[in-house]
Amino acid sequence: KARNSHEPEFLQAVQEVAETVLPYIAGQEIYSGKNILLRMVEPERAITFRVSWVDDQGEIHVNRGYRIQMNSAIGPYKGGLRFHPSVNMSILKFLAFEQVFKNSLTTLPMGGGKGGSDFDPKGKSDAEIMRFCHNFMAELCRHIGPNTDVPAGDIGVGAREIGYLFGMYKKIRNEFTGVLTGKGLSWGGSLIRPEATGYGTVYFAQSMLETKRDSFNGKKVVISGSGNVAQYAAEKVLHLGGTVLTLSDSSGYIHDKEGIDEEKLAHVMYLKNEKRVRISEYIEKYPNAEFHAGEKPWNVVCDVALPCATQNELDGDDAKALLANGCMAVAEGANMPSTPEAVSAFHESKILFAPGKASNAGGVATSGLEMSQNSLRISWTREEVDERLKGIMKNIHDVCVSYGTEGNYVNYVKGANIAGFVKVADAMLAQGVV
Ligand code: NDP
């Protein structure tokens, strides 16, 4: 704790795992006295580097690039790149740590990592984004590779950025390999990868609802965020007969009482992915909806909440508001969006609560499927990938139930942490102290 006292998000993520895993370790002779968790919290390698780039006016800027290679016990490091001004060591270490457990849960052979930069893509031209991505990869390329470390997208890094990053990797290394996931379909990408995190989150929530003999049909759903994860979570909720009431971005949220249907969602995708503007523009086309500047959607009456924007976006008071309004299930599409106070409130009230490392694992799982397709040099159909994704999410749900059941309540946080831990810990034990 002392060594990382200046890294609050990282401590928060470790604390949550320690609270559930340490009591488990204490009861298991094979793990005791091996300091396994102590070894897991120290990254195998953490790299920072300078990224200088020139803007359209000819001015030179300097940002900091990072790659945290957290754990490679069960496979090459795997995890996204985030471009956002808030990026720092604490945030990336928390994300990399969570990624180790998440990747273990997918049942695929992937270690954990995360990276990115404090570069702010908002308001930048396409040419500026390209120059930044190229200069970022000019350094990162020496630390990654298809059998070493395979980055993907995250906040601020979507298909466009992955394209520029891949282009520079290929130029420098002179090889066409599956070194990044989230690639375009014509150059090694996988069908369903763009949809996978959002779809997977809803598949997981559906499995939770099924334990109560319930479903999404007719449910009122509030979603935060309007990026990759939020858009496809909304799409899958609509497929399953639910009503999506809200979406948001860092400027506020929109509340459409009539529901955000497929046509309206297509407009959101246009605003966010092509026009790249604020979510408030939604009400220009749909004036019956409301825009709440600077607020989050957690006061809107709903049955299910899907936080899909960023860490710590749902605090204890937000959780109380959701519970008071009768919310019965929360599944995290984002990483660690609920604060510890919010998680405690959900557990105390015994509603269904899925932590991101379980419910949003569909993205990295499908990245794992992209890696397999690249290695085999084949492409699976949309249906094949979606079936595998569904199967993986069902498996993750079921393993959480088997490790997390306490009486007649399933503590999915405990289940995910212990199930994720066991596989990595066993591999580390087998490989010795290295
Ligand atoms: P995008 O960049 O596509 O979208 C992010 C969304 O969250 C935007 O609506 C953005 O609003 C909002 N947001 C970001 N930062 C903040 C902030 N500080 N305060 C309020 N809103 C914010 O990212 P993704 O959809 O890919 O990622 C969303 C979450 O899901 C992240 O926690 C990410 O780690 C997690 N995740 C993503 C996966 C993936 O496959 N993409 C896989 C697993 C987890 P604005 O545009 O105003 O910034």
TrEMBL record:
One Pfam family it belongs to: ELFV_dehydrog_N
Top-level taxon in the UniProt lineage: Bacteria
Sequence ranges assigned to domain Glutamate/phenylalanine/leucine/valine/L-tryptophan dehydrogenase C-terminal in this UniProt record: 190-432
Keyword set, alphabetical order: NAD, Oxidoreductase
InterPro entries for this protein: Aminoacid_DH-like_N_sf (IPR046346), Glu/Leu/Phe/Val/Trp_DH (IPR006095), Glu/Leu/Phe/Val/Trp_DH_C (IPR006096), Glu/Leu/Phe/Val/Trp_DH_dimer (IPR006097), Glu/Leu/Phe/Val_DH_AS (IPR033524), Glu_DH (IPR014362), Glu_Leu_Phe_Val_DH (IPR050724), NAD(P)-bd_dom_sf (IPR036291)
Example of a GO MF term: glutamate dehydrogenase (NADP+) activity
The protein, known as: Glutamate dehydrogenase
Organism annotation: Zhouia spongiae
Encoding gene per record: gdhA
